[in-house]
Amino acid sequence: MTKTDLSIIIPAKNGAPYLPTMFGSLLQQGDIWQRSQLIFVNDGSTDDTPRVLDEFGEKFPHFDVITNPEAGGLANARNQGLKAAVGEHIAFLDGDDWLAPDHLPTLLDAAHRLDVDFIRCDHTPVEG
Hints:
alpha/beta, 4 helices
């Protein structure tokens, strides 16, 4: 096991309206933050995304931002995040996603307990 259990990669372009909900859900993930890395790829945003990143970045001990002056697309942004990742495990989130409380610690515990390299879980679309 590495010192960093989890690298979470979040690419987004113009996600300012959704990011507070996403970051709020990350803050409900228990005590994983000392051993987790959060990598945000700001993919050419022209809205208030940088301000939101400044606001929430200070709440996470290992928060890295990669800023693209022009959008390169979702796949390229995820690949940039992967290059910067140091965690034993990788998780991808989108800027408009949110997680149930303790979702990430539950997945990490299962990965370690089961000694597996990959865990897949489903998602639920929410509208309204």
